[in-house]
From TrEMBL:
Residues that bind orotate: T138, R166
Origin species: Oxynema aestuarii AP17
Function according to Swiss-Prot or TrEMBL: Catalyzes the transfer of a ribosyl phosphate group from 5-phosphoribose 1-diphosphate to orotate, leading to the formation of orotidine monophosphate (OMP).
UniProt catalytic activity: orotidine 5'-phosphate + diphosphate = orotate + 5-phospho-alpha-D-ribose 1-diphosphate
Family: Belongs to the purine/pyrimidine phosphoribosyltransferase family. PyrE subfamily.
Enzyme class: transferase
Single GO biological process annotation from the record: pyrimidine nucleobase biosynthetic process
The protein's required cofactors: Mg(2+)
Keywords annotated in UniProt: Glycosyltransferase, Magnesium, Pyrimidine biosynthesis, Transferase
Pathway given in the UniProt record: Pyrimidine metabolism; UMP biosynthesis via de novo pathway; UMP from orotate: step 1/2
Protein name per UniProt: Orotate phosphoribosyltransferase
Length: 199
């Protein structure tokens, strides 16, 4: 059963998680023959933006990821484009929940004009703790670019949090870099639920 926006605001986090899982299965998960951004072939594909740009998906994403942040988190950030709606959703929900957390967007290349910045968003104090958010982690390379840009700017990054973990090496890469890693959904949970919904 799909929850309304009002119900999603009031629902407990378990119900919010179930709603988000079903949205991933219904909107984002597809089976077939796909080539990933890494160049690898896959029998399935997840387009996380179809969920994170959906109004109910954004609300559920913001509530769940905000609940996973450490109490001393000073900002959320991610690499454009996949993380843009995620960090925005978390920041907006944080304001409603009286825990305002700014969002930062990391460019893949420095802006070619003006300040030529890699990081868009408010300037924070050096040493601010920033959590890097991602929609789908495969090899982990995309979020690691964001981690490195943030660290170069003087921020402290200790963890990457993703909506989906494809279990394709990302967790191991983050561990090698001294980063914690958590995901809302392991890929096998999405695949099981997708089969249930299709039957």
């Amino acid at each position: 059963m799909t929850l309304t926006a009002d119900a999603l605001v009031r629902a407990d986090l378990a119900a919010v998680r179930t709603q988000l899982l079903d949205l991933f299965c219904q909107l984002a998960y597809r089976e077939g023959d796909f080539v990933l951004s890494s160049g690898a072939h896959s029998s399935y594909y997840i387009n996380g933006k179809l969920v994170t740009l959906h109004p109910l998906g954004a609300l559920a994403t913001g509530r769940l990821l905000l609940s996973m942040l450490d109490a001393d988190t000073g900002a959320v950030a991610g690499l454009t484009l996949g993380a843009d709606p995620i960090v925005s959703a978390v920041s907006v929900v944080s304001a409603y929940e009286a825990r305002p957390i700014p969002a930062l967007i990391i460019r893949k290349e420095a802006k070619g004009h003006g300040t030529q910045a890699y990081i868009e968003g408010p300037t924070l104090e050096p040493g601010t703790k920033v959590a890097v958010l991602e929609d789908v982690v495969t090899t982990g390379a995309s979020a690691l670019k964001a981690v490195n840009r943030l660290r170069d700017a003087g921020y402290v990054v200790e963890e990457v949090i993703s909506l989906v973990d494809r279990a394709a090496g990302g967790a191991e890469l983050y561990r090698e870099q001294g980063l914690g890693f958590r995901a809302v959904f392991p890929i096998d949970e999405i695949q099981r639920r997708a089969r249930q919904l299709a039957s």
